[in-house]
Write a structure and sequence with these properties.
This protein is about 75% helix and about 0% strand. It is an all-alpha fold. The radius of gyration is 54 Å and the shape is rod-shaped. About 20% of the residues are buried.
């Protein structure tokens, strides 16, 4: 009894220590083993041990523990009950049989089965390393198989993507090679696991065979007890010794566990029937066994209140192991009743687990909906792949985020797992194929762009040392504009060709700017002189002598004109000068038109000094164009007035048009006077030229 309590405490303690780490463990029962690669299948075949020595007892006489007293009268009813209870009992029997092969194998229940599907290849390698290094090799077979399945799937997907990318860049499929650090590390760790596993099974195999033979020998000795003619007390003591030897016989192959136990239990019952000659000894044992089994029933029934379902099921397994291995039969009149109680408690736990798995199935269905939605979003992107680099890069980020969400969405029902995974992979591949096709075509375009840019580079290099600024500058600017329109070139050439082109352009424009800077020096000098002239004009005071004051103002105008060009961004100084001059003429009673003509007279004098017929001709063209523009504006205003009646002179619009018309007529008169001055100048220059020509002829 103390031994049984100790086993229960150990079971409870073991579960309590790891209850927080066993999330997902119950899922192991509902989710089928993942399909593994051919390599894994063959390795699992290696794990199968040769058939151990079988028990040759007549199976027709063997009984399951819950059917210890099957009689001919109620055999049909009992067989029906046996079928009803078979599912929940067999589940525990199979698990205990697996644990019976090696007590260390029980640890597999407390090693959490993580969501390997959501892990990256690198994390899967890390988890495999942790398991192989820290856990018993016989306890991690399912974990390793699941990890290998997920790793192989992810690596194959990754490899297919790299292969498509390689082919899209013009590579030949037979030349494709890819070295993966993660794959190499995984193979190393997995090889280490296989080596440890093979060594373990090699050592275990002979030990299991020896222990099996020990138990078969004990059964033979047990069978022989009823044929030995000796004192019943001596026989009973020998029976107890056989029971102790049985408990200490060690683990046997899982394939023989249940059959060997049933045979042993069958002959124990026969021996107890033989003990009818000494009812006192038999009844004492029956009583003790009944008390122990009643305690187990109480413990099993109490598990219904245990909130931790995983812990409850593990304890129930331990109770079944104690029931089967450590406690003998009870009196026939109690056998059916006590077993029914224990079986009912087991069935209740089984029902709880089934309901739990049904709830998990609902979660898996929701996960399936999430994954289908994610796949649909990827498919939508795959159907509308962008036609530019920036757009595709953005879509690549979106697809990667969706892939991460897919792996984190959780498990789906096993029946659609392969289908969902295949659909997911094909959808991602569709996007990758379209993406790779774009970059393949882009590579051709970039090569064409490279040739175009090489031509522009040659042209820029040929022009960079030219001094024909007026002709080459617009051409160099056009070359730069054309360069920007061409687009990308292959990355390995882009930096080099851009640097060469930029250097050629910079070389030319640096020379141009140096040339302009020399010209700018003269312009800034003119600006400095004009600033000084403007300052003196600001200080100028009228003397009261109109003629003298007009001459003084005209002197300022002449001085201003002789300074020439100034920097473009300093031209506002001209406006300041003209405003002051206009104000002075106004004070002197000189009208605006006269003022304009006085200022223009200075300009004509400057032209006369230069005797530049080309400049004078340009000025005539300019003045004539202004005369034509003013005449056109006058005609338009006069036409506008015709739309008004004779009695509309007080109309503000009419007044505005009349004012504009008067101003334009004044402007026309001013421009005509300017043309007159130019004509006088031109006539004077022509006359002087004729006189010079006459003098020259006379001298000859």
């Amino acid at each position: 009894m103390q031994e049984n309590d100790r086993k229960l405490q150990q079971a409870e303690g073991g579960i309590e220590e790891t209850s927080e780490n066993t999330k997902g463990q119950l899922e192991e029962g509902v989710q089928a083993e993942p399909k593994v690669s051919d390599e894994v299948v063959s390795e699992n075949e290696e794990e199968k041990k040769p058939e151990k020595e079988t028990v040759t007892e007549d199976k027709s006489t063997e009984e399951k523990p819950e059917k210890e007293t099957v009689t001919e009268d109620n055999s049909t009813e009992e067989k029906s009950k046996e079928n009803d209870s078979e599912e929940h009992i067999d589940e525990i029997d199979e698990s205990n049989a697996e644990d019976a092969e090696d007590v260390e194998n029980e640890k597999r229940h407390t090693i959490p089965m993580l969501d390997y599907h959501s892990m990256s290849m690198e994390n899967l390698v890390g988890e495999l390393q942790r398991l192989v290094k820290n856990e018993k090799v016989q306890a991690i077979n399912k974990h390793v198989s699941s990890i290998k399945y997920e790793f192989d799937q992810k690596f194959q997907e990754f490899l297919d993507e790299k292969k498509e990318e390689f082919i899209s860049k013009g590579g030949n499929e037979i030349d494709f090679r890819y070295n993966s650090v993660a794959k190499r590390q995984f193979n190393e760790v997995y090889s280490d696991y296989r080596e440890k596993r093979d060594q373990y099974y090699k050592k275990l195999d002979q030990s299991l065979k020896d222990n099996l033979q020990k138990r078969l020998n004990i059964i033979e000795e047990l069978k022989g007890l009823i044929d030995i003619e000796e004192d019943i007390n001596t026989t009973y003591n020998n029976f107890k010794d056989l029971q102790n030897r049985w408990k200490n016989a060690g683990p046997i192959p899982r394939t023989n566990y249940n059959d060997v136990w049933r045979t042993y239990h069958h002959h124990m019952e026969i021996f107890y029937d033989f003990l009818h000659l000494n009812r006192e000894l038999r009844d004492l044992d029956f009583k003790h066994n009944l008390e122990e089994k009643q305690k187990l029933v109480e413990r099993a029934e109490a598990l219904a209140e245990e909130p931790d379902l995983n812990k409850a099921f593990r304890e129930l397994q331990t109770l079944h192991k104690i029931w089967k291995e450590d406690i003998g039969p009870v009196a026939k009149e109690h056998r059916e009743e006590i077993w029914e109680k224990f079986s009912t408690a087991t069935k209740a736990m089984h029902q709880r687990r089934q309901e739990h798995f049904q709830e998990l199935e609902k979660v898996y269905e929701k996960n399936l909906e999430k994954k289908q939605e994610i796949i649909a979003n990827i498919a939508k992107i795959a159907e509308n792949v962008a036609d530019n680099h920036r757009g595709i890069q953005q879509q690549i980020k979106e697809v990667e985020a969706l892939r991460d969400s897919f792996f984190k969405a959780g498990r789906v029902p096993q029946k659609v797992n392969e289908e969902t995974w295949s659909y997911f992979k094909e959808t991602v591949r569709k996007f990758n194929r379209t993406k790779n096709a774009f970059y393949k075509n882009q590579k051709k375009e970039q090569q064409q762009n490279l040739e175009k840019k090489k031509e522009l580079l040659e042209l820029a290099v040929s022009l960079k040392d030219s001094d024909d600024w007026a002709e080459v500058t617009p051409q160099m600017k056009r070359i730069q504009r054309d360069w920007k329109k061409i687009g990308h070139v292959p990355r390995k050439y882009s930096d080099k060709i851009w640097k060469e082109f930029k250097d050629a352009c910079n070389h030319y424009f640096d020379r141009l700017h140096a040339e302009k800077n020399e010209a700018h020096k003269e312009e800034f000098e003119n600006f400095k002189k004009k600033s000084e002239c403007l300052d003196r004009l600001k200080e100028f005071q009228l003397s009261g002598d109109k003629k003298k004051d007009i001459e003084d103002v005209k002197a300022f105008l002449a001085e201003w004109k002789q300074y020439g060009r100034i920097p473009y961004n300093k031209k506002h100084i001209n406006s300041k000068f003209n405003k002051i001059v206009d104000a002075l003429f106004k004070k002197l009673g000189v009208g605006k038109q006269q003022s304009e003509l006085l200022k223009y007279g200075n300009k004509v004098q400057e032209l006369a000094k230069t005797e530049d017929n080309y400049a004078i001709g340009n000025e005539r063209v300019f003045v004539k164009r202004k005369i034509d523009e003013v005449k056109s504006e006058i005609r338009q205003l006069e036409n506008n007035l015709q739309f008004f009646s004779d009695d509309s002179e007080d109309n503000p619009l009419v007044k505005e048009v009349v004012n504009k018309l008067d101003k334009q007529k004044e402007a026309l008169q001013t421009w005509k006077e300017k043309m007159k001055k130019l004509n006088i100048l031109e006539h004077k220059l022509n006359k002087e030229s004729e006189e010079e020509e006459t003098d020259s002829n006379e001298e000859e």
